[in-house]
């Protein structure tokens, strides 16, 4: 049965890395938002359900070697990390706890494929971008047009600033793509009404995007990976204590912000070969931690299979 299920080894980095003289380290990128969030748009961000997500995009640092080590054990056939102690995956519960994004509600579906995006930008943002690439715009343009909001903004202008801020979060660190500087305008159509946006399952959309990026990155010829890359190291550190640095800071919500504080990395692996070794050896030793937990039925959600077994 297992032989029939795991069928993509000939296309997987886990096999090819055995032949490589140097281990592959994926190119990872995150676009943090500089400066503190303006209180002028805080209320609108709370209405849209993105308030907690704003706290993770200012000091996040990526760990490309840890991310690369995890991708080597990601199986596209099952959407799980294949480890000696069993199968692990990132669940919707992880998304809610780690990022604070809503995971209940209606699925976030694709908007129209073709539209007058210039007119849509003018209606929703009040300005037309200099350049529109299909249905994408440059993140740099958003940053320049929507800097720190002034105190004398009208309510309509505050709404537009909040929409632009959410778009910067999505393109910068929640659902970034390999372009590193473009974001899809179709997300704008979801923020015409902030309260309606809060009823969408943004956590599911973000997790599906990350799953797709991880599946693509298992190919040996891939050099880059997109998606919410700050989530991967944070999830692994909470899941596997042997990867966790010493942080003299209490647990706070969302959980990913725990690593935004000074940490001690003494005796914590930083080389890829050390991370690979620990994932193979220490994860097996950790198996006994979960022996007392009864089996639970998986939760089936559209296009995702998640098991609610988060243990911090």
Automatic annotation (TrEMBL):
Q: Where is the Aminotransferase-like plant mobile domain?
A: 59-282
**One GO term (biological process):** meristem maintenance
Can you name this protein? Aminotransferase-like plant mobile domain-containing protein
Q: Which organism is it from?
A: Gossypium anomalum
